[in-house]
Amino acid sequence: MKGLELAERYFNEAGRPALEKALPDLMPRLAAGLAGEGSECFEFDDEYSRDHDWGPSFCIWLDEDDFQSYGNEVQKIYNGLPKDFLGYPERKDGPNSRGRVGCLSIRSWYLKFTGCPEGPENAVQWMRIPEAFLATASNGRVFYDEYGRFTGIRNRIKDYYPEDVRIKKITARAAVMSQAGQYNYPRCLKRGETVAAYLALAEFIKAAISLTYLLNRKYAPFYKWMYRGMDDFTILPRIKSQILALGSGSSENAQETIEGICINIAAELRRQHLSENSSAFLLDHCGEMTEHISDPQIKQMHIMEG
Protein backbone atom coordinates (compact mmCIF):
# COMPACT_ATOMS: atom_id res chain seq x y z
CA MET A 1 0.00 0.00 0.00
CA LYS A 2 1.25 3.48 -0.85
CA GLY A 3 1.77 5.92 2.01
CA LEU A 4 -1.00 8.30 0.91
CA GLU A 5 -3.59 5.52 0.78
CA LEU A 6 -2.46 4.26 4.19
CA ALA A 7 -2.67 7.78 5.63
CA GLU A 8 -6.18 8.35 4.30
CA ARG A 9 -7.46 5.08 5.72
CA TYR A 10 -5.71 5.79 9.04
CA PHE A 11 -7.45 9.15 9.28
CA ASN A 12 -10.89 7.90 8.21
CA GLU A 13 -10.88 4.71 10.29
CA ALA A 14 -8.92 5.79 13.38
CA GLY A 15 -8.26 9.53 13.47
CA ARG A 16 -11.56 11.03 12.43
CA PRO A 17 -13.73 8.98 14.81
CA ALA A 18 -11.43 9.87 17.74
CA LEU A 19 -11.47 13.58 16.88
CA GLU A 20 -15.25 13.67 16.33
CA LYS A 21 -15.81 12.02 19.70
CA ALA A 22 -13.44 14.26 21.68
CA LEU A 23 -13.74 17.61 19.86
CA PRO A 24 -16.93 17.67 17.75
CA ASP A 25 -17.11 21.47 17.75
CA LEU A 26 -13.60 21.76 16.29
CA MET A 27 -14.20 19.42 13.34
CA PRO A 28 -15.73 22.09 11.03
CA ARG A 29 -12.58 24.21 11.44
CA LEU A 30 -9.80 21.67 10.97
CA ALA A 31 -8.21 20.18 7.88
CA ALA A 32 -6.60 16.76 7.64
CA GLY A 33 -4.46 15.09 5.03
CA LEU A 34 -0.90 14.19 4.23
CA ALA A 35 1.32 16.67 2.41
CA GLY A 36 4.78 18.18 2.64
CA GLU A 37 8.13 16.45 3.03
CA GLY A 38 8.59 12.79 2.18
CA SER A 39 8.45 10.59 -0.90
CA GLU A 40 4.99 9.29 0.03
CA CYS A 41 3.58 12.82 -0.39
CA PHE A 42 4.62 12.68 -4.06
CA GLU A 43 3.54 9.03 -4.34
CA PHE A 44 7.16 8.10 -5.07
CA ASP A 45 7.50 5.82 -2.03
CA ASP A 46 8.56 2.19 -2.38
CA GLU A 47 9.92 -0.55 -0.13
CA TYR A 48 13.12 1.44 0.42
CA SER A 49 11.13 4.42 1.72
CA ARG A 50 9.90 2.57 4.80
CA ASP A 51 13.08 2.77 6.86
CA HIS A 52 12.12 6.22 8.22
CA ASP A 53 9.28 8.78 8.11
CA TRP A 54 6.83 6.23 6.74
CA GLY A 55 3.89 4.49 8.35
CA PRO A 56 0.39 5.19 9.72
CA SER A 57 0.25 8.97 10.07
CA PHE A 58 -1.44 12.13 8.85
CA CYS A 59 -1.49 15.90 9.39
CA ILE A 60 -4.12 17.95 11.22
CA TRP A 61 -3.97 21.64 10.29
CA LEU A 62 -5.54 24.34 12.47
CA ASP A 63 -5.89 28.12 12.29
CA GLU A 64 -3.48 29.89 14.60
CA ASP A 65 -6.11 30.71 17.27
CA ASP A 66 -7.36 27.13 17.33
CA PHE A 67 -3.80 25.82 17.33
CA GLN A 68 -3.00 27.87 20.42
CA SER A 69 -6.23 26.80 22.15
CA TYR A 70 -6.53 23.17 21.07
CA GLY A 71 -3.16 22.17 19.63
CA ASN A 72 -1.93 20.23 22.66
CA GLU A 73 -5.25 18.44 23.08
CA VAL A 74 -5.41 17.50 19.40
CA GLN A 75 -1.83 16.23 19.55
CA LYS A 76 -2.71 14.08 22.58
CA ILE A 77 -5.58 12.53 20.66
CA TYR A 78 -3.26 11.91 17.72
CA ASN A 79 -0.61 10.35 19.97
CA GLY A 80 -3.27 8.05 21.45
CA LEU A 81 -4.20 6.49 18.11
CA PRO A 82 -3.13 2.89 17.42
CA LYS A 83 0.53 2.78 16.44
CA ASP A 84 0.12 -0.26 14.19
CA PHE A 85 -2.57 -0.13 11.51
CA LEU A 86 -3.67 -2.67 8.88
CA GLY A 87 -0.57 -4.70 9.58
CA TYR A 88 1.79 -1.75 9.03
CA PRO A 89 4.08 -0.97 11.99
CA GLU A 90 4.48 2.33 13.79
CA ARG A 91 5.96 5.20 11.81
CA LYS A 92 9.71 5.51 12.40
CA ASP A 93 10.68 9.14 12.67
CA GLY A 94 13.99 10.30 11.24
CA PRO A 95 16.31 12.93 12.75
CA ASN A 96 14.53 15.79 10.95
CA SER A 97 10.96 14.56 11.31
CA ARG A 98 9.56 17.17 13.66
CA GLY A 99 6.59 19.02 12.21
CA ARG A 100 5.90 16.59 9.39
CA VAL A 101 2.78 14.94 10.85
CA GLY A 102 0.43 15.41 13.78
CA CYS A 103 -1.18 18.70 14.81
CA LEU A 104 0.18 21.66 12.86
CA SER A 105 -0.52 25.37 12.46
CA ILE A 106 -1.70 26.37 8.97
CA ARG A 107 0.21 29.64 9.27
CA SER A 108 3.46 27.99 10.34
CA TRP A 109 3.14 25.22 7.75
CA TYR A 110 2.92 27.60 4.79
CA LEU A 111 5.49 29.92 6.34
CA LYS A 112 7.92 27.00 6.49
CA PHE A 113 7.65 26.17 2.79
CA THR A 114 6.95 29.53 1.19
CA GLY A 115 8.16 32.16 3.66
CA CYS A 116 4.61 33.59 3.52
CA PRO A 117 1.94 32.63 6.09
CA GLU A 118 -0.79 32.92 3.46
CA GLY A 119 1.34 31.58 0.61
CA PRO A 120 2.89 33.89 -2.02
CA GLU A 121 0.73 36.89 -2.82
CA ASN A 122 2.80 38.88 -5.32
CA ALA A 123 5.22 38.16 -8.16
CA VAL A 124 8.35 38.97 -6.17
CA GLN A 125 7.35 36.52 -3.44
CA TRP A 126 6.70 33.85 -6.07
CA MET A 127 10.14 34.47 -7.58
CA ARG A 128 11.96 34.08 -4.28
CA ILE A 129 10.51 30.69 -3.27
CA PRO A 130 12.62 27.70 -4.39
CA GLU A 131 10.60 25.64 -6.83
CA ALA A 132 11.02 22.43 -4.82
CA PHE A 133 9.41 24.18 -1.82
CA LEU A 134 6.33 25.01 -3.89
CA ALA A 135 6.17 21.39 -5.03
CA THR A 136 6.31 20.34 -1.37
CA ALA A 137 3.64 22.84 -0.32
CA SER A 138 1.17 21.58 -2.94
CA ASN A 139 1.75 17.81 -3.04
CA GLY A 140 -0.04 15.00 -1.23
CA ARG A 141 -3.75 14.88 -0.55
CA VAL A 142 -6.27 16.64 1.69
CA PHE A 143 -8.75 14.15 3.16
CA TYR A 144 -10.99 16.55 5.05
CA ASP A 145 -11.42 20.33 5.02
CA GLU A 146 -14.94 21.66 5.48
CA TYR A 147 -13.56 25.04 6.56
CA GLY A 148 -11.50 25.39 3.36
CA ARG A 149 -8.79 27.69 4.66
CA PHE A 150 -5.90 25.25 4.25
CA THR A 151 -7.18 24.10 0.86
CA GLY A 152 -7.75 27.67 -0.32
CA ILE A 153 -4.07 28.57 0.09
CA ARG A 154 -3.05 25.20 -1.32
CA ASN A 155 -5.19 25.62 -4.44
CA ARG A 156 -3.73 29.05 -5.09
CA ILE A 157 -0.25 27.50 -5.08
CA LYS A 158 -1.40 24.59 -7.25
CA ASP A 159 -2.79 27.08 -9.80
CA TYR A 160 0.88 27.70 -10.63
CA TYR A 161 3.16 30.68 -11.13
CA PRO A 162 1.99 34.05 -12.43
CA GLU A 163 2.89 34.04 -16.11
CA ASP A 164 5.60 36.70 -15.78
CA VAL A 165 7.36 34.52 -13.21
CA ARG A 166 7.04 31.40 -15.34
CA ILE A 167 8.51 33.17 -18.38
CA LYS A 168 11.36 34.61 -16.32
CA LYS A 169 12.27 31.15 -15.04
CA ILE A 170 11.95 29.61 -18.52
CA THR A 171 14.30 32.26 -19.86
CA ALA A 172 16.83 31.61 -17.10
CA ARG A 173 16.76 27.84 -17.67
CA ALA A 174 17.14 28.26 -21.43
CA ALA A 175 20.19 30.46 -20.87
CA VAL A 176 21.80 27.84 -18.60
CA MET A 177 21.05 25.04 -21.07
CA SER A 178 22.62 27.01 -23.89
CA GLN A 179 25.68 28.05 -21.93
CA ALA A 180 26.35 24.73 -20.19
CA GLY A 181 25.29 22.21 -22.83
CA GLN A 182 25.55 23.86 -26.22
CA TYR A 183 28.65 25.96 -25.53
CA ASN A 184 30.75 24.90 -22.53
CA TYR A 185 30.30 21.12 -22.68
CA PRO A 186 31.87 20.61 -26.14
CA ARG A 187 34.62 23.15 -25.43
CA CYS A 188 35.57 21.38 -22.21
CA LEU A 189 35.78 18.07 -24.06
CA LYS A 190 37.99 19.58 -26.76
CA ARG A 191 40.34 20.87 -24.07
CA GLY A 192 40.43 17.48 -22.34
CA GLU A 193 38.83 18.96 -19.20
CA THR A 194 36.76 15.89 -18.38
CA VAL A 195 35.57 16.92 -14.91
CA ALA A 196 34.54 20.36 -16.16
CA ALA A 197 32.66 18.66 -19.00
CA TYR A 198 30.77 16.44 -16.54
CA LEU A 199 29.87 19.48 -14.44
CA ALA A 200 28.63 21.32 -17.52
CA LEU A 201 26.57 18.29 -18.51
CA ALA A 202 25.06 18.08 -15.02
CA GLU A 203 24.08 21.78 -15.18
CA PHE A 204 22.51 21.20 -18.58
CA ILE A 205 20.52 18.17 -17.41
CA LYS A 206 19.18 19.93 -14.32
CA ALA A 207 18.18 23.03 -16.30
CA ALA A 208 16.58 20.93 -19.06
CA ILE A 209 14.47 18.98 -16.57
CA SER A 210 13.44 22.16 -14.75
CA LEU A 211 12.53 23.89 -18.01
CA THR A 212 10.40 20.93 -19.08
CA TYR A 213 8.51 21.16 -15.78
CA LEU A 214 7.93 24.86 -16.42
CA LEU A 215 6.62 24.18 -19.91
CA ASN A 216 4.26 21.58 -18.40
CA ARG A 217 3.22 24.06 -15.69
CA LYS A 218 4.34 21.75 -12.88
CA TYR A 219 6.69 22.43 -9.97
CA ALA A 220 9.94 20.49 -10.04
CA PRO A 221 10.44 18.61 -6.74
CA PHE A 222 13.68 18.02 -4.82
CA TYR A 223 16.48 17.03 -7.20
CA LYS A 224 16.44 13.30 -6.43
CA TRP A 225 12.80 13.10 -7.59
CA MET A 226 12.97 15.49 -10.56
CA TYR A 227 13.57 12.81 -13.16
CA ARG A 228 11.00 10.41 -11.76
CA GLY A 229 8.40 13.17 -11.67
CA MET A 230 8.54 13.51 -15.46
CA ASP A 231 6.53 10.31 -15.96
CA ASP A 232 3.16 11.98 -16.54
CA PHE A 233 4.28 14.90 -18.71
CA THR A 234 1.98 15.62 -21.64
CA ILE A 235 4.28 18.29 -23.08
CA LEU A 236 7.64 17.07 -24.41
CA PRO A 237 7.34 13.56 -22.92
CA ARG A 238 10.27 12.45 -25.10
CA ILE A 239 12.67 14.65 -23.13
CA LYS A 240 12.70 12.05 -20.33
CA SER A 241 14.25 9.34 -22.51
CA GLN A 242 16.70 11.85 -23.98
CA ILE A 243 17.79 12.83 -20.46
CA LEU A 244 18.21 9.14 -19.61
CA ALA A 245 20.48 8.73 -22.63
CA LEU A 246 22.62 11.63 -21.41
CA GLY A 247 22.78 10.28 -17.88
CA SER A 248 23.76 6.75 -18.83
CA GLY A 249 25.61 7.09 -22.13
CA SER A 250 29.12 8.00 -23.17
CA SER A 251 30.24 11.41 -24.41
CA GLU A 252 30.34 10.04 -27.97
CA ASN A 253 26.67 10.83 -28.74
CA ALA A 254 26.04 13.30 -25.92
CA GLN A 255 26.36 16.44 -28.03
CA GLU A 256 23.90 15.09 -30.57
CA THR A 257 21.44 14.34 -27.75
CA ILE A 258 21.94 17.80 -26.25
CA GLU A 259 21.16 19.40 -29.60
CA GLY A 260 18.10 17.17 -29.99
CA ILE A 261 16.77 18.28 -26.62
CA CYS A 262 17.38 21.95 -27.48
CA ILE A 263 15.63 21.59 -30.85
CA ASN A 264 12.58 20.11 -29.06
CA ILE A 265 12.62 22.85 -26.41
CA ALA A 266 12.90 25.59 -29.05
CA ALA A 267 9.94 24.15 -30.93
CA GLU A 268 7.85 24.15 -27.74
CA LEU A 269 8.83 27.74 -27.00
CA ARG A 270 7.42 28.66 -30.40
CA ARG A 271 4.30 26.55 -29.83
CA GLN A 272 3.62 28.37 -26.56
CA HIS A 273 4.20 31.72 -28.34
CA LEU A 274 7.11 32.58 -26.06
CA SER A 275 9.48 33.03 -28.98
CA GLU A 276 9.27 33.13 -32.75
CA ASN A 277 13.01 32.59 -33.26
CA SER A 278 13.86 29.64 -35.52
CA SER A 279 17.29 29.05 -33.94
CA ALA A 280 18.12 25.85 -32.07
CA PHE A 281 20.64 27.78 -29.94
CA LEU A 282 18.49 28.53 -26.89
CA LEU A 283 20.28 31.72 -25.90
CA ASP A 284 18.92 33.26 -29.10
CA HIS A 285 15.39 32.97 -27.68
CA CYS A 286 16.06 34.64 -24.33
CA GLY A 287 15.84 38.28 -25.39
CA GLU A 288 12.49 37.80 -27.09
CA MET A 289 11.09 35.85 -24.13
CA THR A 290 12.19 38.59 -21.74
CA GLU A 291 10.16 41.09 -23.75
CA HIS A 292 7.03 39.07 -22.93
CA ILE A 293 7.47 39.91 -19.23
CA SER A 294 5.30 42.90 -18.35
CA ASP A 295 6.37 43.42 -14.72
CA PRO A 296 9.57 45.55 -14.83
CA GLN A 297 10.68 44.31 -11.39
CA ILE A 298 10.47 40.67 -12.49
CA LYS A 299 12.12 41.46 -15.81
CA GLN A 300 15.16 42.91 -14.03
CA MET A 301 15.51 40.27 -11.30
CA HIS A 302 18.46 37.90 -11.37
CA ILE A 303 17.59 34.29 -10.65
CA MET A 304 19.97 32.62 -8.21
CA GLU A 305 18.08 29.45 -7.29
CA GLY A 306 16.69 26.46 -9.13
Describe the structure.
The protein has 306 residues and is mainly α. It folds into two domains: 156 residues, Beta Polymerase, domain 2, CATH 3.30.460; 138 residues. 53% of the residues lie in helices and 6% in strands. α3 packs antiparallel against α5. The model has no long low-confidence stretch (mean pLDDT 94).
For the record, the CATH class of the largest domain is: Alpha Beta
Instruction: Give the termini separation.
Output: 33 Å
Q: What does the radius of gyration come to?
A: 22 Å
How many structural domains are formed by the residues?
2
Estimate the global geometry from the Cα principal axes: elongated
Number of strands: 4
Averaged pLDDT: 94
Structural class: mainly alpha
**Topology as H/E string?**
HEEHEHHHEHHHHHHHH
Are there runs of 5+ residues with pLDDT below 50, and where? none
Architecture (CATH level 2) name of the largest domain: 2-Layer Sandwich
Major sheet: arrangement of strands: 3-2-1-4
CATH topology of the largest domain: Beta Polymerase, domain 2
| Tally of DSSP helical segments | 13
Helix content: 40-55%
What kind of sheet is the major sheet? 4 strands, mixed
β-sheet strand percentage? 5-15%
Could you outline the blueprint of secondary structure elements for this entry?
Blueprint: H1 3-22, E1 31-34, E2 59-62, H2 64-79, E3 102-105, H3 106-114, H4 123-128, H5 131-137, E4 141-145, H6 149-158, H7 163-190, H8 194-215, H9 223-226, H10 239-248, H11 254-271, H12 283-290, H13 296-300
Parallel strand pairs: 2-3
Antiparallel strand pairs: 1-2, 1-4
